[in-house]
């Protein structure tokens, strides 16, 4: 805990057996109270490895729900166990757990309600091996999103994210897509609800075991991102209604 605020790290896992242990061992348990692993019907021994490591909260999907569907289970479980701060950490070791201190203190001290680890601030992305086509796509999509949403994020596409309980209870993330565009829908919902987002520089790693999506899936994701940004722009201007931005019932 920090200032009596319960901190949970959620691990959305899919075939993470090879990298789960090194990720888990770097989690700072001097402040982290709970770890939740949600396994999205992995084909390897991710769940067995999680049990071997002593992870207390393990949720298993009987069907593969996708990256967004996995996150929904992560956040629902975190709220269920009473977390005040929820950090999403990919168990493929692409993002370092060593930033959890910095992220959580910003939130526990009531400076920000949402913190992102940005690969674009500084030179972390290319230095860490991000493919050049992904880097260029990231920059172009982020530029368009910032223009449509009137924001100034360095990137919308990082998988390193942390939220307060207040944020998770204020947005209707359960209506979002179960695919990768979930991430962008969630950020749009957060901005629409009036929350500010902080970013900290985050190194990243690209290697064989790290999760990634192919060019075709990346193109589908990019089109989805543009669609979310236009929905936000129109909804913010009162020109349309979207279920993404409806209040939580």
Tell me, what's the shape? globular
Question: Strand share of the residues?
Answer: 5-15%
* DSSP summary, beta strand count: 7
- Uncertain runs with pLDDT below 50, 5 residues or more? none
CATH architecture: Alpha-Beta Complex
The biggest beta sheet, please? Answer: 7 strands, mixed
Spatial order of strands in the largest sheet: 3-2-1-4-6-5-7
The H-level CATH homologous superfamily, spelled out, is Spore Coat Polysaccharide Biosynthesis Protein SpsA, Chain A
Our Rg estimate from Cα atoms comes to 17 Å
CATH domain class name: Alpha Beta
Topology:
Elements: E1 7-13, H1 17-25, E2 34-39, H2 46-53, E3 57-60, H3 66-80, E4 85-88, H4 100-108, E5 114-118, H5 124-127, H6 132-149, E6 161-164, H7 165-170, H8 182-192, E7 197-201, H9 215-236
Parallel strand pairs: 1-2, 1-4, 2-3, 5-7
Antiparallel strand pairs: 4-6, 5-6
Helix pairs in contact: 1-2, 6-9, 8-9
């Amino acid at each position: 805990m920090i200032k009596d605020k319960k901190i949970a790290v959620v691990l959305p896992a899919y075939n993470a057996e090879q990298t789960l242990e090194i990720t888990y061992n770097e989690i700072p348990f001097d402040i982290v109270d709970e770890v939740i692993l949600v396994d999205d019907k992995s084909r390897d021994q991710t769940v067995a490895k999680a049990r071997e490591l002593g992870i207390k909260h393990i949720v298993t999907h009987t069907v593969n729900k996708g990256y967004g569907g996995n996150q929904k289970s992560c956040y629902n479980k975190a709220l269920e166990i009473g977390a005040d701060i929820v950090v999403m950490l990919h168990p493929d070791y692409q993002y370092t757990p060593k930033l959890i201190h910095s992220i959580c203190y910003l939130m526990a001290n009531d400076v920000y309600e949402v913190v992102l680890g940005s690969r674009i601030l500084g030179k972390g992305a290319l230095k860490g091996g991000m493919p050049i086509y992904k880097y260029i796509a990231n920059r172009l999509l982020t530029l368009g999103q910032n223009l449509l949403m009137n924001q100034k994020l360095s990137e919308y596409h990082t998988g390193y994210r942390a939220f307060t309980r207040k944020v998770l209870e204020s947005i209707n993330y359960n209506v979002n897509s179960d695919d990768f565009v979930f991430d962008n829908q969630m950020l749009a919902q957060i901005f629409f609800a009036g929350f500010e987002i902080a970013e900290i520089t985050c190194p990243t790693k690209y290697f064989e075991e790290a999760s990634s999506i192919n060019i075709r899936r990346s193109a589908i994701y990019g089109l989805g991102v543009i669609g979310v940004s236009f929905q936000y722009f129109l909804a913010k201007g009162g020109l349309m209604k979207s279920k993404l931005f409806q209040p939580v019932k």
